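Researcher: Re-running this chain for the archive, since the previous output was lost when a drive failed. Same request as before.
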Amino acid sequence: MAQPGTATEDTAVRDTRALDLAAENKALFRRFVDCWNSGDTEGMMRCWSPDLVHHGRGGAMDREAVQALMGGFMQAFAGLHFEVEQLVAEGDLVAARMVATATHQRDFMGLPATGRRIRVIVMGQVRMRDGRIVEHWNVMDELHFMQQLGLASAGLLDPVPS
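Model: Regenerated structure tokens:
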């Protein structure tokens, strides 16, 4: 048991605060995913800081650009649903491993609707500040995604012979 006024008590208090912050940040991330899953773009926006920055393959995007991209994806891929498989939080960061499923029902970024069902692994990381997401990094298994839409050969995903 930590004695009042000792370094051990200070460490215990810091550890408790860190656990509380991690739990709060995970809860915010889950709320964000719930908004995605229900198609609630306004709810998603409430989770984001006004100065949100998304870091992706194409570089950094601001909040408005991300909103437009996500809105277009949500319209094109009906029934979009993210299943959170794992969340890890430390300090102001939350990392997630998820599986996204949907059906390609509308044109998206020049690709005509295929009617195909997709299931793709998504890895993401967010930085939180003052109860909002201020930074977002996302990596999706794009090759598998493209293969499921008929844009890449299934052979590209075959195991490499040893």
